[in-house]
Amino acid sequence: MTAQTPWFFHDDRGHRATAAAPPRRIVAYLQAAASLWDHGLTPAGLFGSLHDGAAPDPLKTGDLPLDGVPYLGAGDALSTEAVLAARPDLLVAVTYDGKSVYGLDPQQAEELAARVPTVALAVGPGHSLVAVRDRFAALAAALGGRGTARTPALDAAEQRLTRAASGAPGIRVLALSPAGRDSVHLARPEAWGDLAELAARGVTTVHPPAGLSANWSTTDWDTAAALQPHLVLADARGNATPAGELAGVPGWEALTARARVLPWNPELPCGPQAHAAFLETVAEALEGVGPDTD
């Protein structure tokens, strides 16, 4: 009988996850699960965050087939017992601050880490699309997945976006998350890897007013409209206010009268397929907007 090879992986909190053999039953946060699926790995269970509800948000799960993977809950509805009942030999999540396991409260994360090896990969401010993609590819390879960080489609998407940005000088792109009829969260481009990638490719990204949050500036719709973007990336996750509920809001109507609106997923799966699709979508929109005539 051949002995199993011990497995280990250093995550982005500085923790070393270890197991007697390469893990096969993975329970993962929605974004992480979608990322691993893109590398050919099927999780044994999913969990959400405090923003999620009784069913998984299909925007966060990408191409992952939800009918074949149990959803264990989110927030207060996610119990430690439910996670352990899925018999995981690895827990995979993301971290925004390099310390916390996103989607789990600190006590629950500690309880689970005492029972199950845990890996959290950084997706927060200061982490580029390239860095995030490379880290998920490395984890996938360590788990027996494809571990491919680049594809010809991604190369083509990056080149198309660079050309589109060059052909649309002055076109301003604003990313936001609707928070009701009276409030909107405006994304700080430097805090989000996908928005930072747009800027690196020559896209003019709009910077909202300064504030305490590293990720968002929370303000009103009139302030958002006054920024005069030509293209709006609007959070389309289940926790964001749908556009249909903003009808009649003067600031929203002023914003959309000027700008084209595209759905945006701030929790994009961290693989080359999802990244290529995002860059292609923005490139196509820039090609349609054309040069700034202000």
UniProtKB/TrEMBL annotation:
GO cellular component assignments: outer membrane-bounded periplasmic space
Keywords recorded for this protein, A-Z: Signal, Transport
The family this protein is said to belong to: Belongs to the bacterial solute-binding protein 8 family.
Domain of life, per lineage: Bacteria
Signal peptide (UniProt feature, chain positions): none
Keyword Cytoplasm appears in the UniProt entry: no
SUPFAM superfamilies: Helical backbone' metal receptor
InterPro entries registered for this protein in UniProt: ABC_transptr_periplasmic_BD, Bact_iron-sidero_bind
Subcellular localization, as worded in the UniProt entry: Cell envelope
Protein name: Fe/B12 periplasmic-binding domain-containing protein
GO biological process: iron coordination entity transport
Domain Fe/B12 periplasmic-binding: 68-257
PANTHER family in the record: FERRIC ENTEROBACTIN-BINDING PERIPLASMIC PROTEIN FEPB, IRON III DICITRATE-BINDING PERIPLASMIC PROTEIN
